[in-house]
């Protein structure tokens, strides 16, 4: 049985206008010429997540492809700041749409080139769930890239949410995500990427029964960088 549908007002890129605004404005701020001439490198981009959503208490999968975005900046190839928004559009299925908004501060452990490095990060995850509730908590991040040929590189990242806030009758929330794919820069200012992303959430319901939900699918994106 699907959870009761709860109507909420939302922007196209998320349920919290301030969060979407910060994500976009921060990317535009860092993209100004004054930053481009300094020690900062960054990117602002748009993506499409062609995802399917499933949960233990419901049969089958629900298609929820939706647009998202990201903004990222690196200082001296050492410290990084990134904001990301991923969505699953479930409005026509009896569920609420889910939004995954994250902010991460990252540090490169080692870096051979701009596109070959390993980094760790600490951040914050804010999630609007399919039953109309929301949860948030700290996240731990591991990220890496490997240059293949020139401006072509493989990338991968995984994040773990050890303890998220209770959401309605859901308790003991925790989860993880991973994404991996291929990125290509056809021009000095443009990057294209294709990959696969999975987000999994585990929790206990009101009876103490363990339940899992999962959102997964292919990602296609483009970004402007400097």
Report on the structure:
- The protein is mainly beta.
- Helices cover 8% and strands 64% of the residues.
- The chain has 2 helices and 11 strands, in the order ααβββββββββββ.
- Strands 1-3-4-5-6-7-8-9-10-11 form a 10-stranded antiparallel beta barrel.
- A hairpin with a 2-residue loop joins strand 5 and strand 6 (116-128).
- The N and C termini lie far apart (48 Å).
- Residues 1-15 and 27-37 have low confidence and may be disordered.
- Shape assignment: globular
**Overall pLDDT confidence:** 85
User: Rg to the nearest angstrom?
Assistant: 18 Å
Structural class: mainly beta
N→C terminal distance:
48 Å
Taking strands numbered 1, 2, ... along the chain, how are they ordered across the largest sheet? Answer: 1-3-4-5-6-7-8-9-10-11
User: Portion of residues in helices?
Assistant: under 10%
How would a crystallographer describe the biggest sheet?
Answer: 10 strands, antiparallel, barrel
Number of alpha- plus pi-helical segments: 2
The percent range for strand residues is over 45%
Low-pLDDT regions: 1-15, 27-37
According to DSSP, the number of beta strands is 11
SSE arrangement, N to C:
HHEEEEEEEEEEE
């Amino acid at each position: 049985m699907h959870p009761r549908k709860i109507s909420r007002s939302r922007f196209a890129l998320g349920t919290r206008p301030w969060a979407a605004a910060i994500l976009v404005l921060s990317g535009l701020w860092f993209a100004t010429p004054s930053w481009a001439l300094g020690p900062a490198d960054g990117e602002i981009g748009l993506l499409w997540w062609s995802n399917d959503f499933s949960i233990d208490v419901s049969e089958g999968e629900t298609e929820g492809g939706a647009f998202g975005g990201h903004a990222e900046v690196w200082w001296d190839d050492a410290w990084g700041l990134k904001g990301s928004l991923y969505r699953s559009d479930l409005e026509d299925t009896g569920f609420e749409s889910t939004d995954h908004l994250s902010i991460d501060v990252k540090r490169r452990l080692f870096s051979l080139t701009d596109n070959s490095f390993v980094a760790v990060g600490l951040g914050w995850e804010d999630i609007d769930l399919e039953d109309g509730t929301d949860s948030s908590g700290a996240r731990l991040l591991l990220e890496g890239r490997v240059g293949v040929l020139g401006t072509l590189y493989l990338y991968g990242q995984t994040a773990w949410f050890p303890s998220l806030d209770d959401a309605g009758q859901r308790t003991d929330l925790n989860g993880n995500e991973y994404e991996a794919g291929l990125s290509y820069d056809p021009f000095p200012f443009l990057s294209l990427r294709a990959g696969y992303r999975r987000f999994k959430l585990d929790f206990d319901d009101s009876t103490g029964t363990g339940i899992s939900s999962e959102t997964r699918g292919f990602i296609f994106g483009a970004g402007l960088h400097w």
